[in-house]
Amino acid sequence: MGTALHTPILDWYAEKARDLPWRRPDASPWAILVSEIMLQQTPVARVQPVWTEWMERWPTPAALAAEPPGEAVRHWGRLGYPRRALNLHACARAITADHDGRVPSSYDALRGLPGVGDYTAAAVASFAYGGSHAVLDTNVRRVLARAVRGEEYPPKATTTVERRLAESLLPALDAPTWAVAVMELGALVCTARAPRCADCPVAGLCAWRLAGRPAHDGPERRGQTYAGTDRQCRGRLLAVLRDAHGAVPKAALDAVWADEVQRERALDSLVADGLAEVPDEGTYRLPA
DNA sequence: TAATCGTGGTG
DNA sequence: TCACCAAGATT
What we know:
Strand content: under 5%
Protein name: A/G-specific adenine glycosylase
Strand order of the largest sheet: 1-2
Oligomer: single chain
CATH superfamily of the largest domain: Hypothetical protein, domain 2
Number of domains: 3
Pfam families: EndIII_4Fe-2S, HhH-GPD
CATH architecture of the largest domain: Orthogonal Bundle
Family: Belongs to the Nth/MutY family.
InterPro entries: DNA_glycosylase, Endonuclease-III-like_CS2, Endonuclease3_FeS-loop_motif, HhH-GPD_domain, HhH_base_excis_C, MIG/MutY
Organism: Sphaerisporangium corydalis
């Protein structure tokens, strides 16, 4: 039944796709890997400028691998989840050391790189190398939940049922374009909060819309307050290290977060995560 | 499995 | 306004 989705969605994509730099034909596998990791839980609009700067600065894995990891963290800026910067740096070194300087093309080899999970491995294997994989990101999962399963939202964690469904929908030809088209539909039309069904190419056969767009019934979907959390504290501390050149005295870190217990905990966790170093007693810096 | 990991735009 | 959410991964 799902194959009826292919033509309308592919036609819609051909007309409406955004022109994103990592989708251009000249985008290298490295450029695509960098984009995919930057895009994890991060909107396109915020990724664009950072990705462009990274590509100019580090056009190859070898270029990034030659830098200390702290430089990756510094140029990550305020993208969020800065361990991704360390992951990309570790990817660059692993690719240089173990893959002859080229981003691997197989799903399994990609999956073995730091920070590359099921989604990212499938995405890079597809978009950089033309492989045929089920690419299950939040957009695809939501589109399939609605169009096929008739539910407003997918389960919190990806299920075997979802994966089987996505695999059953893989087209015989050009699976990568199918994948990016469904993702784009989810990003631009079949959005989480205010879906634009009037603009949807498959509104006529969407199970959720045909059922009258019933509200999600299961348990509450979320709960991620941020103010006052360790995450916010870590962000403040790391911003100080990023904006400094070289080591900073601990007093500079003490100044940005009042709660001492929480601040110490956060600082220790940054060091434990490899996002900060203690070159001398009482001073901190990005990892050199 | 569920908690944790940043940041900023938005309905 | 503020809770929600964005091309997830890891432990």
